[in-house]
Amino acid sequence: MDRLRSARERIATATDLPGILDAAYDAFEDMLAVLRLHQEDDESAFPAYVVAAAAAANGRDWIAGADTLPSAKSRDHADDLPEGTSVTDIAQVVAALSSELSAQLAATAARVADPGDRVCCQGAATEAAAIAVLLSGANPP
Questions:
Q1: Using one digit for the tens of pLDDT, what is the confidence trace for 66-92?
Q2: pTM for the predicted model, two decimal places
Q3: CA-based diameter of the chain, in Å?
């Protein structure tokens, strides 16, 4: 879970557009890896995890389309995945990360000058919000 907490920290502290986009891309990748790893841990959580994983992939793809995204580093998202953690705990951590990510991307979209970057941030913010709703058990607005 350290990996997801680190992603949340990066989102919270990123200040410039390239930094926000880079942190968002990594956060979506990390969520996707964790959700896929644990989607079969609990039969009742499987549908929410699968749909949330699809939203994480969509969010990552929105960010990948942004003109200002820094060139891809060698990103390794296969290590340090949380093992032995309850499905409920994972859902709570991913929901919190997604909620923060959605807020950061929506705020970024509101102030970004480039229309392409704005659309990418808005699309990714929508996907992050969907993940938060799916995994928090909250009703959508």
A1: 999 887 554 554 455 556 678 888 899
A2: 0.88
A3: 44
